[in-house]
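Protein in question kept underneath.
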Amino acid sequence: MANKKRNPWMTCFIVLAVFICLTVCCVTVIGAGGYYAFNAGMLNQREVLNAVGMGTGEISIVNIADEALDTKLLRMDTESGSPETINNESIAPLDISGYGGIQPGIYELHITTASGIPAGGVCRMTIASGDSFQLVAVPSGIAISKEGMEAQSADDLDMSTSGLCR
């Protein structure tokens, strides 16, 4: 009995067909899982964009000082080379405000009050995709923190000495 050889092109076609079927199944499972996660509220657009490095940052400011804070956010790394004002905010005592949807880059946050108390100043920060900064103004000063980073000392929290503000 003669041994019949299989055509090498047929073997290649079978391997390719199996690979394509597995790929389609994997993409379908991932897509259905993502769709379910979005609909169930387990995942949102910001989290997805941050995971791939295309998200934005945010700065939250809580004012528990005795007077209003005037804030100004400037983008420093502009194409023109000169700082660009992003927004100005006035935050009343016992109020919360801030800046959301900040594109990654280098920024300066200027915080002032009419009387100079709390001691405000300028915080130059680098904001990357997904960064979330929190500032709390109290009568004795302004504390700063960044989500996911623990402060090692009181100096790390004080806006005037923190490494988060260069």
The longest strand covers residues 84-91. The longest helix spans residues 8-40. The two ends are 84 Å apart (CA to CA). Strands lie at 57-63, 69-75, 84-91, 95-102, 105-112, 121-127, 132-138, 141-146.
